[in-house]
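so my prof wants the structure for this chain in the tokens format not the other one, which i didnt know existed until like an hour ago. anyway here's the sequence
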Amino acid sequence: MSDDTYDVDVNKALGALSALDGLEEQGRSLKEEYLGENARYTGWNGDAEHPDDYYRNTQPDEEKTVRSLSETLDAFPQAILAAKAALLASLGSIKGVHADVHDKIEKQKRIAEQKSKDYESDDSGDASGDDESGGGKH
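here's what i got, hopefully its the right format
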């Protein structure tokens, strides 16, 4: 059951942000590496200029696989950039909330200090009869 609180470890968030650095470039290099390795196997299933049944049956799946994996590897850097943007936005929000709360605390401190000074200045110590304790002689 949720207690409706939000708790964040800013250092862990910063660590995650740091860990994401460079991963988008790694995603790009993975695609280049894959396409380079895949090129070594071009024609594994036959000759495009003289296709046989095996080539005609396997080539559509081969092209679909290469396209699908290439698109996935293209999306990887975008996903990393999106994750970094989300973390930065969260950290910015946390910073904003922290600043707002700090300002409100400081404002309340000033109000409390002023009320304390006002209370001290109102305490003149005279017995003007405002005492409702009924402490007179009977």
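also thought this was worth mentioning. Helices lie at 10-20, 23-39, 53-122.
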